[in-house]
Structure formats: C-alpha cells, structure tokens
Write a structure and sequence with these properties.
The protein has one domain. It is mostly helical and 137 residues long.
Length: 137
C-alpha cells in the first residue's frame, strides 16, 4: 500500500486525470442512464435480441461499433476504478456494459433491471417521461 501512495505522490498529474475522469463520468452517468432507460423498448426484458440495423453503409456501422465498444470499455474500467475512487462506480460499470457488444449483455441487464425495486423505479422514471412501463420479465 505504501508503494501505491509513493507512486501517486510522484505522479500528481495522474491524480488530476483520474479526478477529472471521475467527475466527467459522474455527470455522464447521471445524464446517460435515465436516457437509456427511457429509450428501451417496452418488451426489452421479455423480447428477443433486436435486429441489427443495416441502414448505414458498412464502414459507418463498423466505425460506430468500434467507437461504442471503446467508449463502453473505458466506462467499464473507469467504473471499476470509481469503486475505490470518488464517483458512481456501479452506474458507470452499468453504462459501460450497455454500450459494449459483449456476450450475455442482455442477460446481465435483464438481471439488474428485473430486480423488484430497480424495476419499479425504472418504470416510475419511464411514466414521468410519458413512456409505457417495461413489461415484467
């Protein structure tokens, strides 16, 4: 532990970057998670995987997926760091999972959103936004 403190004392710019990233993801998750929850289709917890859109040209689809996955990975790692640093680690991890194209993503999200208290709060948020509540899993 003393080695970590010595390293951080020798690199104050790292602390500044981590602090800035923490503040950025804190506000980003506060704004982004409700937008995501409101945008979910009503049958997200009961339906099958949505079909992939083919409206964009192939190079744009690949660029979009790369950017989305890189951002999701960064948010996931930042969320892990925020479990011990200031910030909303769990929300940031959740946002990173949502953005990334990882196997089992929908199962994980369904497990989180399917919990009774979470499900009720999400539906309250959706009703306030004039969206239909999610169908129960």
């Amino acid at each position: 532990m003393t080695q970590i403190f010595q390293f951080l004392q020798q690199h104050p710019e790292l602390i500044a970057w981590l602090g800035g990233l923490s503040v950025l993801t804190f506000f980003g998750t506060i704004a982004g998670v409700p937008v995501f929850l409101i945008a979910l289709p009503r049958d997200y917890l009961t339906g099958t995987a949505p079909p992939r859109s083919t409206a964009w040209p192939l190079p744009l689809r690949w660029a979009y997926r790369i950017v989305k996955n890189v951002l999701g990975g960064l948010m996931f790692v930042a969320g892990l760091a925020m479990l011990v640093l200031p910030g909303q680690g769990l929300l940031t991890i959740f946002a990173g999972l949502v953005l990334g194209d990882i196997p089992g993503k929908r199962r994980i999200i369904r497990g989180i959103l399917g919990r009774k208290k979470v499900f009720e709060r999400v539906n309250r948020l959706r009703v306030k936004a004039r969206k239909p509540p999610l169908d129960p899993p």
